Amino acid sequence: MSSVTPTGLRWGPGFIGLTVGLALYGASTCQYLFYVPAFRNDKRLLKSVVFLVLYVSICHFMPVA
């Protein structure tokens, strides 16, 4: 038996995961960019939490890409 695996089976799941992760990263970035000007009167603590969520998302995605 041959131990050669097709390229699609080797790289396909990672590519799909990267694509889905990139789409979710883009969605969270857009949500943040729409949130900041739309809710200027929110408390500083809430704005900090929203920024922290974006920052954690960025820190999670950068090593993957």
Characterize the structure shown.
The chain crosses the membrane at residues 12-33, 45-63. Keywords: Membrane, Transmembrane, Transmembrane helix. The chain has helices at 7-38, 44-64. 82% of the residues lie in helices and 0% in strands. It has one domain. The model has no long low-confidence stretch (mean pLDDT 86). The chain is mainly α. Helix 1 runs antiparallel to helix 2.
Fill in the keyword field for this structure:
elongated; 0% strand; mainly alpha; 82% helix; 65 residues
Summarize the structure.
Keywords: Membrane, Transmembrane, Transmembrane helix. The protein is an all-alpha fold and 65 residues long.
The counted number of beta strands is: 0
Radius of gyration from the alpha-carbon trace, in angstroms: 18 Å
Helix and strand sequence = HH
Structural class: mainly alpha
Mean pLDDT: 86
Count of discrete structural domains: 1
Fraction of residues in helices?
Answer: over 70%
How much of the sequence lies in strands comes to under 5%
Task: Report the end-to-end length measured between terminal Cα atoms.
Answer: 35 Å
Principal-axis shape? elongated
Low-confidence stretches: none
Main β-sheet: number of strands, strand sense, barrel status? none
Keywords: Membrane, Transmembrane, Transmembrane helix
Transmembrane segments: 12-33, 45-63
List the helices and strands and how they pair.
Layout: H1 7-38, H2 44-64
